[in-house]
What we know:
By secondary structure, the protein is mainly alpha-helical.
Amino acid sequence: MPKYYCEYCDTYLANDSPTVTDTHRQGRKHKDNVTNYYQKWLEEKTQKMIDEATAAFKAGKIVSDKNTTSSPLPSLNDERRNHKRRRRGRRGKGRCSNMGPDIACKASLGGKCLNMH
Length: 117
């Protein structure tokens, strides 16, 4: 019977029967080796992307504007709050009257307004 080679553990198993390979794959040592393998792969991939971005920045392909500040993205709760202010006192069919008849409310999901107004 042919031997089974596990590339994560760098070892040969006695044979390639399903019970032997399944038992091996369920083991703690194998799972740790798989986790370490993909963690290392991810770190290498991330470092490669960082190196490429750094090289592009140094080559002048990426321009940095030091005068701009980044602001956090608005949350869904902020969108709901702003939507309620725009819509206060008016009832509709799941659409904002101030957004136009053909445009659904930005705070809607599947045509139903999430603000319940």
